[in-house]
Design brief:
The protein has 8 helices and no strands. It has 177 residues and is an all-alpha fold.
Length: 177
C-alpha cells in the first residue's frame, strides 16, 4: 500500500508537470521537482525519466475520462452526456498534442495505443445509452464518432461547440422514408 504522503507527492508532481509541459515542452525534471515542492530524488524515484512522467500524465487523463461516463449518464440524457464527455475528450486531445513535444515518436504511439481501448469503450457506452432511449440512431458506430471528433482538437476553441453540434445532430434518429 502506498503511503498517503507518497500519493500526495505523486499528485503534486503530476499537476506541476502537466502545467510545466504545456507551457514549455523542454522544461527540466529539476524545474518540475521545484514546481511540485519535492526534491529531485522524490521525482526520480517516481519517474525515472521524463517520458514516464508524460505517459502518466496522459494516462491519468484517460482514466478520468473513462470514469466520467457513469456519472455523466447518471445525471444527463445520453446525448447531453455524450456532448459533455466529448468536450472533455477534446480537451484531453489538446493536452496530448501539447505534451507531444516532450515525447518521442514511440512514446506518442504508446499513448495512442494505450488510450484507444478505454476511449472506444466510453464512446460505445454513451452511444448504446442513446440507442436504447431512441435519441441516437441505431447505425451510429463508435469508430465513426471517434474519427469525426478526432479533428475537433484542431478547431478554434470557439468553434468546438458548433462543430460538435453538427456531429451530434447527425447522430439523431432519421425520419422514416
Amino acid at each position: 500500500m502506498v503511503r498517503s504522503d507518497a500519493r500526495e507527492n505523486r499528485a503534486r508532481i503530476l499537476a506541476a508537470a502537466r502545467e510545466a509541459f504545456l507551457a514549455d515542452a523542454d522544461v527540466s525534471m529539476n524545474q518540475i521537482a521545484q514546481r511540485a515542492g519535492v526534491g529531485p530524488g522524490t521525482l526520480y524515484r517516481n519517474y525515472p525519466h521524463r517520458e514516464a512522467l508524460v505517459l502518466d500524465i496522459y494516462q491519468e487523463e484517460i482514466d478520468r475520462l473513462a470514469a466520467a461516463v457513469t456519472t455523466l449518464l447518471a445525471g444527463h440524457p445520453p446525448v447531453e452526456a455524450l456532448r459533455l464527455w466529448t468536450v472533455e475528450l477534446v480537451g484531453a486531445m489538446r493536452t496530448k498534442h501539447g505534451l507531444g513535444g516532450a515525447l518521442s515518436p514511440a512514446d506518442h504511439t504508446a499513448i495512442t495505443e494505450r488510450s484507444y481501448g478505454p476511449v472506444m469503450t466510453a464512446i460505445t457506452r454513451l452511444l448504446d445509452a442513446g440507442k436504447a432511449d431512441g435519441s441516437i440512431r441505431p447505425d451510429a458506430e463508435p469508430g465513426d464518432f471517434l474519427q469525426l471528433t478526432g479533428a475537433l482538437w484542431r478547431a478554434a476553441p470557439d468553434r468546438t461547440g458548433p462543430i460538435l453540434d453538427l456531429i451530434l445532430d447527425g447522430l439523431g434518429r432519421r425520419p422514416q422514408r
